[in-house]
Amino acid sequence: QLWCGTGNASATSTTIAGAMFRIRPGVDTGWSLDKEFPANECPISIISYRGRMYAGLFAETAAVGALYQRSTAGAWTVLTDSGGAPSAKGSRCSALTVFGDNLYFVATNVQGASSTARIRKYDDTTVSTVYTYALEAGDLPQFGLTGIVHNSVIYIASRVSSFPNSTALGRVAYSSDGSSWSHNAAGEVLQIT
Fold first, then answer.
1. Cβ 109 vs Cβ 91: under 8 Å
2. Are 136 and 122 within 8 A, CB to CB?
3. What's the whole-number average pLDDT of the chain?
4. Among residues 78, 77, 76, 80, which one has the least CA distance to residue 109?
5. Which neighbouring-strand residues pair with 189?
């Protein structure tokens, strides 16, 4: 099957209606709606892990940005969320990446100076935090963009929100074992070989 996560933002970017669609190429003649998410939340990162689909959600307003899991029977449930209280805007679970036997993702909760951004690990039983980002420029958390695995190392790229003072505040966190993490310095180019 092929999967697609969608979101529809209004002209003022205050309303997002998110959904997951699927199609079986060569079998289906069109996409089928599989899940509608709560108002103001949409999937921004999807992945298959141990035979189940996962969707990391972006929360536009007053929500916590959940990580959903789809059972093999087709039921979607919240596995975890970005942590903390519902935020005014922008909390999310993103950059879903499978490394070894585990699923990794960035959980960002936007709360001003109390914001958190963490790399979390799901081992098919438990969700745990394996790395915590420092806030940038006082109160700007990192948002996970994407993750890759190369030469037995996991790399997760992130950046702060598009605030005027966010130039060169992106990070690449990396680990060869999923437990001990390092990251590049602000503005430093990290060459992956």
1. yes
2. no
3. 84
4. 80
5. none
